[in-house]
Amino acid sequence: MSAAEPQPGLDTGRVERWLAANVDGLRPPVEFALISGGRSNLTFQITDAAGERRALRRPPLGGVLDSAHDMGREWRFISALAGTDVPVAPPLAFCEDASVTGAPFYVMGYVEGTVLADPESARRLDENARSRACESLVEVLVALHALDPHEVGLGPMVRSTGYAQRQLRRWLHQVRQTPVDHLPLLEEIHDLLIARAPEQRTGIVHGDYRPGNLSFGPDGTVRAVFDWELATSGDPLADLGYLVSTWQEPGDPAAGAPPAPSVVPGFASRAGLVDEYARLSGHDVTDVPYWVAFSQWRSACISVGVRARYLAGHMADDGYEVSARADHEVHLAETARRHLTRRSEP
User: Fold this and answer.
1) What are the residue ranges of CATH 3.30.200.20 in the chain?
2) Cα four-point dihedral sign 93, 103, 41, 29
3) What is the pLDDT of residues 187-212, one digit of tens each?
4) pTM for this one?
5) Angle at 194 between CA 279 and CA 71, to 5 degrees
């Protein structure tokens, strides 16, 4: 698709001129293609006249929640992590001028690889590579959590208040901005999570760490971690809890969620991921069940916002099943409640 043809969220002519002036080595004209699969920020592949590919990220077209979809946040994190043991796409240029295409955006290098978004993508790796993918994603997560945010230039992002408390306050506020039938259930789980919040340490939290946000090489090694829009400072166990909460095993009930890549033979179990993280990091993982419940509740709240954007027509039609996702929100909240109730029992 050429720069002259329309793209959702891009004034392609103005963006092409900006790219030519700000991205080293880029040769216009540029072709743009929306990369499918994103249900939050929009990601485009941009290909220049020399055939070199790059990627551009910008916020969704409408229904943007307060404090969400911050391109500057993503840019700061990938810029800070470039050159560390955490693989990220090379940061190339950041545009904070919303007049160019209606919102800030940034450009990064294009990382070739397999994003494990579903079972079909997982089957592109052989069983040895699937096993290696499990090892590698834990290794990268441990490497991320070993970084001191101050030492990599993220000191201004460090918050003095507890991560769980901040997140619980933020997501409850945002879910209350959207009409939702199961708001009382979400409020009930919120109160349980507040009451049971553990002591927390401070590190870098990706916030959405799962195989669908990673690019893997043919041997299963992680090549890049994407989608840093939820990244912040906080207790690193939150990332492990989220990974476990999204990690399906064969035989798990679907409950409205699309099948995950981990249901394909060759992937580790949830317990195996936790054990490997504990072994490599040396950290106590006793509180992981709390963070699993926290992540299930937060995922339900995020889903409420995504569903609202679909219903308002702000998202592309990519087969998203609105009613099924509403059912899944209830399932996530009820599962979180069961986890929290079990943790309170002697």
Assistant:
1) 12-109
2) negative
3) 999 999 999 999 999 999 999 999 99
4) 0.91
5) 75
